[in-house]
Amino acid sequence: MTITPNQIPPQSQKRTPALESEMTPKPKYDNPDYKGSDKLKDKVALITGADSGIGRSVAVHYAKEGADVAVVYLDEHDDAQETKRAVENYGRRCILLPGDIRNDSFCHEAVRKTVDEFGRLDILVNNAAVQFLEPSLDDVDAAQLGDIFATNVFAMFYFTQAAVPHMRPGSSVINTTSINAYKGNAKLLSYSTTKGAILAFTRSLAEPMLEKGIRVNGVAPGPIWTPFIPDAFPKEVVEGFGKQVPMQRPGQPMEIAPSFVFLASGDASYITGQVLHPNGGVVVGA
Q: Positions of the region Disordered (predicted)?
């Protein structure tokens, strides 16, 4: 179910966010060998950026574990419908919440609609993000810098502020950071900086949330085959994507989602303020 770099042809998309439906080969988000065991039975999860990529796979794996899902996305409606179809295929409910997460009022509204629909909120996955290729420091545009921080960092504050009042003891906040928070990436300077901020947000929020019984953790993926790749990079860079890690291949979304299941479940009841590293074998600082 994995793919090798030589199976990834040159490709890019002019549309931002890019669409999973237009990628070749299609990312693999549902592992048929993964059998749910009610780890999240009747829980409710809100996942940002769940129309595609890692977010879609997390939504599907949560459904396999018995959770209902609210999918937040910008405007990739066809991709989001595929996520909804996949979640409902496993007998769980799914609502779609399109909108701009840079707007704090939308973030609060999305949480309110989730609670109105499902009656509760147990898991918040702050996953949505954008990235821009920046060959040098001089290529970092002020407006673009504001946009990437608003999307990748500020929205996590908005959603978490809105969600926490509805969460019960045992609930979880899970933030998607990146290998780039630990190693840096000279060509993705602003993106890597936001991912470092997310790491600090995760660690800083974990202890004060303990008094509410809420755990806060993160996942730092390596190179994963998602719409992020043909979105940010020119087609000649996308060709052969994923060679840089010890496993010498890109990860699939379905290989990342179980980390989110673990952190949301009772199996991780003694874990908070920590980050998991599904990155193809790269050793980074904890």
A: 1-37
